[in-house]
Amino acid sequence: MGLTKRFGDFEAVGGVDLDVRRGEAFGFLGPNGAGKSSTMRMIGCVSARSGGELSVLGMDPNVDGPKIRARLGVVPQTDNLDNELTVRQNLQVYGRFFGLSRTYLRAKAAELLEFAQLTERADDEVEPLSGGMKRRLTIARSLVNDPDLLLLDEPTTGLDPQARHLLWDRLFRLKQEGVTLIVTTHYMDEAEQLCDRLVVMDGGKIAAEGSPGELIDRYSTKEVLELRFPPGEQDPIPPLLHGLADRMEVLPDRILLYTVDGEASLAAAHSRGVQPLASLVRRSTLEDVFLRLTGRTLVD
Prior knowledge:
Layout: E1 3-7, E2 10-16, E3 25-29, H1 36-43, H2 61-69, E4 72-75, H3 87-96, H4 102-115, H5 131-142, E5 149-153, H6 161-176, E6 180-184, H7 188-194, E7 197-202, E8 205-210, H8 212-219, E9 223-228, H9 238-241, E10 247-250, E11 255-259, H10 262-271, E12 278-283, H11 286-294
Parallel strand pairs: 3-6, 3-7, 4-5, 5-6
Antiparallel strand pairs: 1-2, 7-8, 9-11, 9-12, 10-11
């Protein structure tokens, strides 16, 4: 409660209140600098909180950091595998840091290689592996100690769609087995696929919290109508569209109408003489919620 992290005079996390339930997948969304990574580092017991209360697996990180870390699995944003070791050795050597026996680790490594679909590459060195394979190995390595809580920082960044969907399947299986997942991601479809609940952070604070469906219902509409016009012909259009949607957003390259019925809004626009170059009716997504709460301005 009231979790805070300061770096000098800068407050990176400003009084965050949240509760992650055992066995759920919980997501952190937010632009760069929103406080996601600082919050994750406090949960992972690698950065001390500046204020407030924090309980991880029923323990206080300031007192029980080593005990908590022994029950955590961590998947960093950038793979930090040992390229000079084989795939199997990366699992076995990492497991020794937890005091696990060589006999146990031989069996555990085989189990995790099968889970990550890397059995046929077990004795290959890491360097030649594809990005998806390395990511699967990093996730497999994080499970060597049978963690109760798995922290995943941008788990599928840079991966192709096939690799992303395979990782989603593996993470879903872990959740089914009772592992609690905490995920940060910039992929809105990933958050919708993986997360039971999530928070949108902005400026170190929580802007919204709920399930993906709840957030879409609360901050957007059932559908979005996108209208595109030739360059220079969009400026006189917005006044003609007033009243056709719950909310209208005028962008440099298109006009968005947030509405219950996109086709009906499109027909109404045509009846008012509006003839777009192209139109698209789509369902509202978590990205619409994210952009409404955090803005469209690029944050560096």
